[in-house]
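User: Sorry, folds how?
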Amino acid sequence: MATFMKTKNRTNTNHWNGTVAGRPSTRSTGAEIRAVAWLCRHPLFLLLPGVLLAATLWWGPVPPGATLGGLALGLVAWWRAHPPTYDRWVAPRVRSCWRRWTAYRGRRWARMLSDCELTREQRGTGHTLVPRVLRVRAVTPSIDTLTVRMVRGQDAETFTDRAPALADALGAHRVATTRTRPGVLTMVVERRMPFTAPVPPAPLPATADEVDLSALDVGDVETGAPFLLRLRGKHVLTVGRSGAGKGSLLWNPWRAMAPMIRDGLVRLWVIDLKGGTETDRGRPLYHRWATTGREAVELLTEYRDSMKDRQSWMRTEGVRESPISRDTPLELLVIDELAMLTAYGDRTDVRECLRLLAEVLTQGRAADHSVMGYVQEPTKDVVDVRDLFTVRICLAVTAASHVDMALGDGARDRGALADQIPGDPAHAGIGFVMDDRSRLPVRFRAGWVTDRDIDELVARATPRTADVLPFPTDTDTEIDDRDDERGEEHAS
């Protein structure tokens, strides 16, 4: 018994410091050790002052001062002389460093996370554990992208739940978070609305070879990069209330692939159940056009039969992917006011249209038969085939629940606040789409298309028309001058 008690005492008691084995020490890491570890992570913080000090001791204060002054003067001259290259190469790096040191480190960052209940207390030592920012990227003045290492016991949902409070603490418009890898998340901080002016419409390519159907430039994303829409092999559903700018996502893709429409490589099948008011201006572009429920059923039947014929041809030729040519073009079905086709129309027509549309959405991808639909209300009662669309876009909507219906569960919690987009014309065309890799919502603005832009598209892209105008290769000013000269000749 005595032997057992001695063994137990030796096992549980550390005679060197009097603490019980297995319990963590109450002492925190020394400040000098933390400082050395920080310098190892940020070597330039010590290297640059050391280089300047060495240069000053070696050459005196004038050469290093002149070098720094010349560098600063050169950056200012670059900033004033050529803003596009400066904003691309220099501004993001300067902005990222500034934001990291002024907003996302030190006591200010720790106090803010503590106020938002995003810190944890280490047991035993009482030390406050603060999530650490690993990287800051401020590509544009309005968007900061942070890579944050969470403390043990936290997960991405912890930050998602506190995102509104975090946005208010940062003075930001919104904060979106997503898990990048174990223990690390990506946080997108939108400091202000990125779109202060309308985006120009998609430019008209000169030839069909310049068109990439997997990356149609139809606007800008919030980082300043082009908003690229993949059309081939995809079915696109656009959700937005009245006045949200759905027309911008109807006409811009057509402008981006205009030479292919002109050359017969893309054929447009258009259903407009608002009596044709939205699409009448582009009527010469269409292969088929329907404006009533009965006409829509006939058009869908013909479109489905076209898909079946293409599938039969592919089986005969032994190909899995149809090449795009004049004999086998991309067949694009465009449906404006999809709800009239799937819910609100004549019941007999609705049932038939739903059956045909479901068949096309499930089988049309390989046969180059794509669908673009536009609807105001994305509920299952209205769009029963909603989940068959492979690309979904959400413009301004009237209810928060519509965001998740359009973009998927949890999209609004991750920052897709489409229900908070103002409904005035100044914000038309602004919306969200989910990034395929990060699953973060990306805000974009589609190009603003005027009646004049539509008329230009019709004049230059109408298929099989002898007097089609050439595609623009000069500046817009020169094009406008030629149009004005033709108008004066016609008037005379």
In short: Residues 33-190 form one domain. The mean pLDDT is 85. Residues 293-317 form the longest helix (25 residues). The first strand starts at residue 120 and ends at 121.
